[in-house]
Amino acid sequence: MSETIIRLITTIIIHCSATPPSMDIGAADIDRWHRLDGYFKIGYHYVIRRDGTVETGRPLNRAGAHARGHNHDSIGIVLVGGVDEEFIAEKNFTEEQLNVLHDLITDLQLTIYRQQTRMVDIIGHRDLPGVAKDCPSMDIEAWLEKQDGGDLPPEKLHQWKTIRFKK
Ligand SMILES: [Zn+2]
User: Fold this and answer.
1) Residues 140-161: pLDDT tens digits?
2) What is the pTM of this model?
3) Ligand 1 centroid to residue 155 C-alpha, Å
4) What's the number of domains the chain is made of?
5) How far is the CA of 148 from the centre of ligand 1 (A)?
6) The domain containing residue 47 runs over which residues?
7) What is the pLDDT of residues 28-52, one digit of tens each?
8) How many CB atoms are located within 10 Å of the residue 151 CB?
9) Which of 20, 70, 98, 154 is deepest in the core (most CB within 10 A)?
10) Cis link prior to 20 (omega < 30° from 0)?
């Protein structure tokens, strides 16, 4: 990633689209829904489709609209899926999606570490204080524990493993 991130970023927030696996939606669909909700465009910075394709939403240097009170200093990533056919929360992401999420997160971590000399917190939407929903229907911290840190410097691997929301 060569893009210079001008905004100060402290947190990467993972969401799900709360759509069943049978709905193969992407950034264009979410963009349409968010505009209908009155936003000027899609509220997330990245969309990870069911097949693992990454689509971009808002430019990284524009604040998102995905987590009230935390949009100014965060990046929003949404995994398509996260509910069953009855729209009940379910961790049903594909292997491709989770592999791509890992690569995207490590890439962003490394970029922000190089440009802003900070490690960012990586959390699920539901890990934010005061959030009552299940989004993203998975335990991001437990999942991170099982990942490696990609190209992150070795001295930062411990932080990668223990990243959580601290405020
Ligand atoms: Zn969410």
Assistant:
1) 988 988 887 777 776 666 566 5
2) 0.91
3) 31
4) 1
5) 24
6) 11-162
7) 999 999 999 888 899 999 999 999 9
8) 10
9) 70
10) no
